[in-house]
Amino acid sequence: MTPQFLASNHKKIGLLEANRGNYDQLNEERYRSYIRVLYLPAGYTLTIDFRQFTTKTNSLFFINANQYFAVQQAGSKPGLLLYYNRDFYCVQIHDEEVACDGLLFNNVFEIPMLALPAGEHRAISAILQQIGEEFSAQLSSREEMIRTYLKQIIIRATRLWKQRHQAQAEPSNDMEFFRSFNRLVEIHFREKHGLADYAGLLAMTPKTLNKKLARIHVLRPNDLIKDRILLEAKRLLTYTPMSIKEIAYHLGYDDPAYFNRLFTLKNQCTPAAFRKQYLAEEVAE
User: Fold this and answer.
1) Is residue 150 packed enough to be buried (19+ CB in 10 Å), middle (13-18) or exposed (0-12)?
2) Extents of the domains making up the chain
3) Cβ of 169: how many Cβ atoms within 10 Å?
4) Cys-Cys crosslink for 256: which of 90, 185, 248, 274, Cβ 3.0 to 4.6 Å?
C-alpha cells in the first residue's frame, strides 16, 4: 500500500502500512506529534511507554501524541497506522460523541490494547479499508467521510473496552466516574499530587474516592496519581536532555531530593540510573 496523507488547512491525517519490510517507519520521529490508532495482526512485538506487548490476535492500540512507541518485530500479515492531529479530530472536544477520553486515551490505569474478537475484527477491517478507499478517491467531502470512519473505530473500541472492564453487577456510572478521574489526573498531575486534591475536584472525601474506584478493581487512586507523574518523569529522562532537578521542578516538586526518593521507591532505581540504563540499551541496539 502506498502511504496516504491528507492535509486541509491545519488538519492532517495519514495512513501507513506496516509489514516486515517497512515496520521500522512507524518508529520515526515525524509521527510522534500525531495521535495514532495502530492496527496490528498477530505476531507483532512493540513497546509503548516502557511496556512491551506481543499481539496474539488482531489488535488495536490507541497512542496519544505525548506517548512513545516502537515496533520491534512484525508479524506475517500487514498492519496499519492511522495517524492524525488534534485539528483533524480532538477527542477532548468531541468527548460527548465518542466517550473515549480517559479510557482509550489518557488512561492512567493501563495502555489500551484491544484484542479484537472475530466479529469486531471484521467490522474494524472493513472501516479501515473504507478509509483507504477514501484516501485514494478524489471525491467531494472525503475529509468528513474519513473523520466519520475514524469516529466509528473509536466508538466501537470504547464499547469493547467498557464491556471487558466492567462486570455486569457494577453500575455503568462507576466506569464513567473512573473515566472522569483519569481525565482530571491527566490535566492536573503536574501541580496536584495528592488524593485530597482530586477528591476536592470531584466534590467528595478521599475515603469516598477510594471506595468508588475500589468497586471497579483498579489501583488505589493515590497510586494512579503517582504512576502518572512517574511515567512523565520516565519520558522526560528518556527523551529530553532535561536535568533531574529540572524534571522535578517541571513536575511540580520544589524539593528535587523528595522527587528522587519517590522515583527510587517506585522504580527500584534512581532517576540517574534509569536514564543511564536506557542510554546503554540504545547504544547496544
Assistant:
1) buried
2) 4-165, 172-284
3) 6
4) 248
Whole-model pTM? 0.86
Angle at 118 between CA 116 and CA 123, to 5 degrees: 80
Q: Dump pLDDT digits (tens) for 51-85.
A: 999 999 999 999 998 888 899 999 999 999 999 99
Superfamily grouping for domain 4-165: Regulatory protein AraC (2.60.120.280)
The number of residues in the chain equals 285
Query: What single letter denotes the amino acid at residue 258?
Result: Y
CATH 1.10.10.60 corresponds to the domain 172-284: yes
Residue with cell 474516592: 209
CB of 91 within 8 A of CB of 98? yes
Cell triple for residue 275?
Answer: 536514564
Distance CA 230, CA 82 (A): 28
Separation between Cα atoms, residue 201 and residue 101, nearest integer Å: 18
What's the CA gap between 128 and 226, in Å, rounded?
37
